[in-house]
Amino acid sequence: MPRPLLILALFAMLGAVSLCWGLVSGSVPLSSADVLRAFAGDAPGAVGDIVFKIRLPRVFAGFACGGLLALAGALLQVLLRNPLADPYVLGISGGAGLGILGATSLGVGYAGAQLAGLGGALSAVLVVFGLSFRAGDWNLYRLLLTGVVFSAGCSALISLILLLAPQAAVKGMLFWMLGDLSEATSAWWPWLALATCGTASVVGSGALNVMMLGRSKAISLGVPVAAAEVAIYLLASAATVTSVSLAGTVGFVGLIVPHLVRLLGVTDYRWLIPSAILGGGALLSLADTAARSLWAPLQIPVGALTALMGVPLVLVLLARRR
Amino acid sequence: MKLSAQALTLGFPGRVLCRDLSLAVLPGECWAVLGNNGSGKTTLMHALAGVRGPLAGSVRVDGTPLAAVGAAKRARLIGLLLQEETQEFWGSVVEYVALGRYPHRRSLLGYDRDAERLARSQLERMDLARLADQALSTLSGGERQRARLALVLTQDPAFFLLDEPLQHLDLRHQTSVLDWFAELARASGRAVLMALHDPALARRYCDHAVLLYETETPLVGPAEQVLTSDNLGRLYRVPLPL
């Protein structure tokens, strides 16, 4: 079996395992038989509620968010020609954070704060894009710098909000900043975003391969580079906005999962994109299940666990690869 | 088929490199572009390939302005070997070379079915077959240059624009590369235009030449008329007895 197909199959299996584990694990452990009975419709009411109202949406939402973050990271690493690019480098997390934390500190309820976060993230996309894109003059250096400066401004304001907010609200804010799926009650729209952005990225993956060679070479090989760059930016932004508005700023997944796939020997974007989506989804889903199960009933922010689980894996792969 | 430039002014905003350059490249011809550092050789290549437009003038393929030719069709007609590629490529040598088939792709996803086979045959041509499955990043400068040449050959355009094709190459590979491109022009009806630094190689392999002077109008024409001792001496500002 060709190596890229093998890695893709491996991540698909890992994804399936992560989803199954997520359904049976939690503060109320369920057996596989309980879950199967729930799907068959003959489980006791409480088990059915746990499976369908709590775990299924959360597990699938987590998987979709992980896939979206890994996809956004892979896309931005090509767009910015920078292996250290991650989904948050262009200010989306800063905008979303400012919206959510600002609304929370003003006493706005959960739904309102989520809307404010979505508004903040979309505003960040518009502001950064608007300041860096001028007709006929799309400059990636300016895009990156605008994003970084915008992020720095948002970080400063978020720090002020954290300092001035009531003590009782600060813990929730910190959870959001570290990444948290506890409020994920719906999975269909992140999956819709994942299917849309993922399909568009796979369709354009041949062009992504060529764009890795740089702007001039990509133009000489027939890629309409300016249009492709705008499309990549918008796709990565849509993926990031969706994930951030649902799960907060989960770190590590978007930066490292694409590199993890490359370290496993898959560099062709036609395979890297689907592998990264499955890998990111599996990592976030596993991390979230661990975050709510290992110290149950205490729940810890999933963003802390994505790093704790992923860092050793990547360090081992880096050490083994010469 | 003809690749032509009319009254080109090349340079950047605030810096003109050359003015009033016109030429017409036809199938079967092999052109040399000679000039000092900063005289506009690379800028000319980029303008002819449609990578960066000229300050003034126009580039046409068979009379159609290059900007009006679709991106993929343009890449099937014109292949460009860049002097520098700034990107790190994470994949293998053969994966890199197969990217040359991108303009010929028949599916949305990438390349035609023969991409890898064609890439391997061009790697063999460039004496790199044994390194085909290595990571591109492990290659030496000269090996990487031959991989870049293999990519342009895999692209299989009608017009090859080669910006300093001999850089980093040892003497044996310099000769074999020039032999192959001259043969390609002669036997396959492709046209080759290459930026060179050695007038002797230009005289030996090319039938047409462009001399890019810093203060004069460029000289364009058949090699035996352009590549004279006098013209080259004025170009390089050193006596060049031929």
Features:
heterodimer, A: 322 residues, mainly alpha, ABC transporter involved in vitamin B12 uptake, BtuC, two-stranded antiparallel sheet, 2 strands, 77% helix, globular, B: 242 residues, alpha/beta, Rossmann fold, 6-stranded mixed β-sheet, 4-stranded antiparallel β-sheet, 9 helices
Walkthrough of the structure:
The complex is a heterodimer of chains A (322) and B (242). Chain A is an all-alpha fold and 322 residues long. Chain A has a single domain, classed as Orthogonal Bundle (ABC transporter involved in vitamin B12 uptake, BtuC), CATH 1.10.3470.10. Chain A has 14 helices and two strands; from the N terminus they run αααααββααααααααα. Chain A has helices spanning 3-24, 32-40, 45-79, 92-105, 110-132, 140-164, 167-178, 188-203, 205-211, 215-220, 225-247, 253-263, 269-293, 302-320, and strands at residues 133-134, 137-138. Chain A has a two-stranded antiparallel sheet with strand order 1-2. In chain A, helix 12 (253-263) runs parallel beside helix 14. The longest helix of chain A is centred in the N-terminal third of the chain and has 35 residues, at 45-79. Chain A is globular. Chain A starts with a helix and ends with a helix. The mean pLDDT of chain A is 88. Chain B has a domain at 3-89 and 157-236: Rossmann fold (3-Layer(aba) Sandwich). In chain B, the strands form two sheets. A six-stranded mixed sheet of chain B has the order 6-7-8-3-9-10, with helices on both faces. Chain B is α/β, with parallel strands linked by helices. Chain B has helices at 41-49, 71-77, 93-98, 115-125, 141-155, 171-188, 199-205, 223-226, 229-236; strands spanning 3-12, 15-25, 30-35, 56-61, 64-65, 78-81, 159-163, 191-195, 208-212, 219-222. In chain B, helix 4 packs across helix 5. Chain A binds chain B through residues 81, 83, 202-203, 205-207, 209-210, 212-214, 216-217, 219-224, 262, 267-268, 270, and chain B through 46, 49-52, 71-76, 78-80, 82, 85-92, 95, 99-100, 102-103, 105, 108-111, 155.
